[in-house]
Amino acid sequence: MGGAGPARAGEPDASGPHPRHWIDNRVPGLEERGFGSYRLVLKGLDPRLDLGLSVSAFLSAARIYADGKEVWAQGRPGDTAKAESPEWRNALLRIGPQADGELELVVHVSNFADRSGGNIMPIAAGDCLSLAAARERTRLAELFVVGAILAMSLYYLFLHAFRPQDRSSLFFGLLCFVIAARILCYDEFYLLEILPSLSWAWLFRAGYLTFALATLLVAAFIRALFPRLVSRWAFLAVLAVSLSYSAVILVLPPLVPSRLLSAYQACAVLVGLYLVTVLARAVARRERGSVLLSCGFVLFFAAVVFDILVSNGAIVGGFFVTQFGLLAFLFSISLVITKKFAGAFATAEMLTEDLARANRAMKRFVPEEFLSRLGKTSVEQVLLGDHAAQDMTVLFADIGSFTRMSDSMSPEETFQFINEYLARMGPVIRSHGGFVDKYLGDGIMALFPDSPEKAVRCAIDMHRSLARYNSERAAQGREAITIGIGVHSGRLMLGTIGENERMDGTVISGVVNLASRIEGIAKEYSIGCAVSERILLGLDDPNAYHLRFLGKVPVKGTREPVSVFEVYDGDPEPLREAKDKARAPFEKALSSFYGQEYKDAMAGFKSTLELLPDDEASRHYIRIIRKLDLA
Length: 631
Fold this sequence. Notes:
This protein has 631 residues and is of the alpha+beta class. The protein has helices at residues 128-162, 167-185, 190-194, 200-225, 232-251, 255-284, 290-311, 322-365, 368-373, 402-407, 411-431, 452-475, 510-524, 533-537, 573-594, 598-611, 616-627, and strands at residues 34-43, 51-55, 58-59, 61-66, 69-74, 91-94, 102-111, 118-119, 124-127, 387-399, 435-440, 443-448, 483-499, 502-508, 529-532, 547-553, 562-567. The chain is built from 17 helices and 17 strands. The strands form 4 sheets. Strands 10, 11, 12, 13, 14, 15, 16 and 17 form an 8-stranded mixed beta sheet that branches. A 4-stranded antiparallel beta sheet has the order 1-7-4-5, with no helix packed on it. Strands 6-2-9 form a 3-stranded antiparallel beta sheet, with helices on one face. Helix 6 (255-284) runs antiparallel to helix 7. The longest helix is centred in the middle third of the chain and has 44 residues, at 322-365.
């Protein structure tokens, strides 16, 4: 019959059980395309039963009549393709109690748009509330699955965004999205609730596209995991077939891709079987995660095959389970990724510790303070030519008579001696806010970013630490050592020099040269510490220190000589007291020297030597006066 109205009388053209698609009944004369009517009489109903019908979508249009009254319409059935208006949707129909315990159902159905006609799932009759509860449970379960799959999709897509080189996460994230979209296209047709104006043709295309894209994405995902095991030509074949079928779905009328579906399903099964062999080879090669992944994929593949059989009527009364197979696949991949990340975290922790050790080691070669002055936090950030101008204090320290001492030692003893000495000086420098810029054999070049006073106090404490070290050496029967320290401050340039394969940090400035020159004066005069006038001016209270003026030092590149002062707070107390007594006659003699009163100067320096017999500064000026025959 056509779709004009209910039909009661007359014998049917054909009869038989009706589980689902009319072509499945194998009744002679029934074809895939056409129209017809179903009639069912329910007898023996409980008159008190609030009867309800749970109706799934028909292929491709239908109307239902209960006791001659239209209760539901899905599209518009017709006797020709032109007269038919296809639609997919489900419904829960409340029929109500039947006083006579009997109900006649008539269904007009037509199909000119799909490969099979009839209803997708059997009509269920029963208590309306029970059917509603069952349907609600089904919807909640499906929506939970959709939510879980979409969450995993977002997780893997974000994972790819953070790690673009990992293409497997991209393909799996897209696969999850496609499967979630497929669930929305079928069964309860949630996509129509999201997009109420979506036409049947585009709902059809969306559902079919999800199958083609899912097949392609599964192949791409496995290939991204095991690129050496998936043949390039095999993947290109999957790509070509899937994209071609997708083009057919998008461009041609729905009936064409519907009739080609069985052929593409066969291709999808072949792709799945090929991927199973790929995973088997991966397991044989003991690829990481291949066992768990294979178990999950086999369950997913089995679910896909089951759905293909259901959609083709080979399994009667079944329902789609691909989403549940995908959850099993997801679970297996989650285990693989969890194991992968656990290993990655362990590796990261190990590498972090290695990096920390490397950084600690690098700090021993490149001071952290040097990096901070360049505005860097690690050596990796330093580039050739990085530089910064700073006002800093430079301290040079050098061991007296080191060459003579090292000549009597073996290389091993020399290194041991230097390291013992430096091990005592380094902590003193750091305790006063300075840092060692570089070691110059037995010498030290240290920088002090803060006030010059810290450098002066450091020089004093270095001599005190040296006194304790000399006590240890004396107990071991070894010779005592002396050091000379020179200190100067000013603007200098810190930076990197060298070339791309080898660079070094350095300080470039006349300040450095003058500090080194002043340290040379300290060694020449056999004194512990010499500082420039600029250092003296930078002290909060110069009178708090034991000082004496040593003279003026000519500096290369400048017209005016630099005044140099001795700081002898670090000397032993007897020597310090002797210098206090000798300071007045020495400075008076020095004043006479610069006033060109050389006889008075000579007498003054000799008086100083009587109070301080080992004063090399006085001897230095006496030699100058005698050499020039000025007295």
